[in-house]
Amino acid sequence: MRTQGTQLSLFQTPGSSDPFAVRVSERARRLTARVHVGGRVEIVVPMGVNPRMVRDFVRRFTPWIDRKVEAMRCAAEPAVEVPPEVRLAFSEERFAVEWRPAAKRVLAERGGRLELLAPDASGARGLLQGWLKQAAAARLAPALLELAARLDIRVGRVAIRRQRTRWGSCSTRGTVSLNCSLLFLHPDVVRYLFVHELAHTRHMNHSASFWRLVERIEPDYRRLDRELLAGWRTVPAWVFTS
Ligand SMILES: [Zn+2]
Questions:
Q1: 93 occurs within a structural domain
Q2: Do 95 and 111 lie in a common domain?
Q3: 36, 88, 198, 231 — which has fewest CB within 10 A?
Q4: Which residues form the domain of 121?
Q5: Is the pLDDT of residue 14 over 50?
Q6: Which strand (E) or helix (H) includes residue 151?
Q7: pTM confidence score
Q8: What is the number of structural domains in the chain?
Q9: Does residue 67 sit in the same domain as residue 118?
């Protein structure tokens, strides 16, 4: 559609805080309001219609537009909550995410692509969350065990969890739990978390002896501890959105 320039003025409608994009169209025969997915409103105006007529039109249709905007916002919400890609800083990998709505729930990893079939965005996120835990088991657990072997520290079991509040933990039985979101952090920060948890197998506290052991293995532990704490900001929201 050819449009008369792209000079779009923004109108503020009474009773609504939403600005409307106004597009003058050569082909339009009458005033129309369009509400796009996500809630963007566009008023299409034929040539020669003056601004007052546009304002009157918008005022008359404001209740309809508001209802439509509400509906289109809801329709758009799930779509933006499935990420277009997943980047793992730990392993410097990136995966393009392709979600297609379907009754069943299937995730297939093909090369650098994650192909999802799920009925809705929530289902798609659930598949991604499951995949993240598997990806963490495959990447983090061997790295932890390798470091433990080099330090001559025995680890009973490695568990992968999806938690909001902690990066890792260590039980008295020697089970080390790792947060799958560690995959979003850089390897040196993740290695520090490993060192921290492995040191807990010797000292189940944060005593001076604990920190001496940590420092012996990782002299730069203070900086890395701060980075680990700041790391929560790098975890994408979809990880915790059900
Ligand atoms: Zn600790």
A1: yes
A2: yes
A3: 36
A4: 85-239
A5: no
A6: helix 121-151
A7: 0.67
A8: 2
A9: no
173 CA to middle of ligand 1, Å? 16
pLDDT above 70 for 76: no
Helix (H, G, I), strand (E, B) or coil at 171: coil
**Which CATH number does the domain housing residue 179 bear?**
3.30.2010.10
Residue written as token pair 């997915």: 37
Going from the Cα of 200 to the center of ligand 1, the distance in angstroms, rounded, reads 7
How large is the average pLDDT for residues 170-187?
Answer: 94
Backbone angles phi, psi at 158, to 5 degrees: -115, 125
Q: Of the residues 77, 103, 118, which one is the last residue of a structural domain?
A: 77
Let me know whether 124 and 156 are in one domain: yes
Residue 207 alpha carbon to ligand 1 centre in Å: 10
Query: Which one of 77, 102, 117 terminates a domain?
Result: 77
Q: Is residue 231 over pLDDT 70?
A: yes
What integer is the mean pLDDT of 5-16?
A: 39
Inside any domain, residue 149: yes
| Pick from 182, 201, 97, 202: nearest CA to 141 | 182
* pLDDT tier at 69, thresholds 50, 70, 90: confident
Residue 169 CA, ligand 1 centroid: distance in Å: 7
4 domain residue, yes or no: no
| Cβ neighbours of residue 45 closer than 8 Å, sequence gap 6 or more | 22, 23, 24, 25, 28, 31, 54
Tokens 């001076």 label which residue? 208
Query: How far away, in angstroms, is 202 Cα from ligand 1 center?
Result: 12
| 119 alpha carbon – ligand 1 mean position (Å) | 41
Residue 15 confidence (pLDDT): 43
Is residue 5 domain-resident? no
